[in-house]
Amino acid sequence: MSDNAVLAAMRRMEIPADVMTGHGFRASFRTIADEVLKFRVDWIEHQLAHAVKDANGRAYNRTSFLPERKRMMQRWADYLDSLKVGEVSKVIVGNFGVAG
Questions:
Q1: pTM of the model
Q2: Angle, nearest 10°, between helix axes 66-85 and 22-35?
């Protein structure tokens, strides 16, 4: 999805440019997945398609950690749903492949 498509969708939802940007959603995910949901940073970085240094010096390996990233994105979706209904504590509890 292009940046313009994301911005157009946000404007249709009446989210003003001075409140949130498309990149702001990525930044929010990065912070919450790490600090609140306690996922491994390398999984998060791979999901965001950031260059990740590994032992072999490869970057942008989009197939790394696919099962773990799938679970992470489901937990992210559950977390967002919980915000909508005010039940955040139910989502944060548990250990589903998180760091720690």
A1: 0.69
A2: 100
CA torsion through residues 24, 6, 52, 42, sign: positive
Would 27 be classed as within a structural domain? Answer: yes
Q: Other C-beta atoms within 10 Å of 7: how many? A: 14
In tens, the pLDDT along 13-43 reads: 998 888 888 888 889 999 999 999 999 998 9
Residue 63 lies inside a defined structural domain of this protein: yes
User: What's the total number of domains in the chain?
Assistant: 1
**DSSP type of residue 36:** T
Amino acid at 47: Q
Contact by Cβ (8 Å): 69, 46: yes
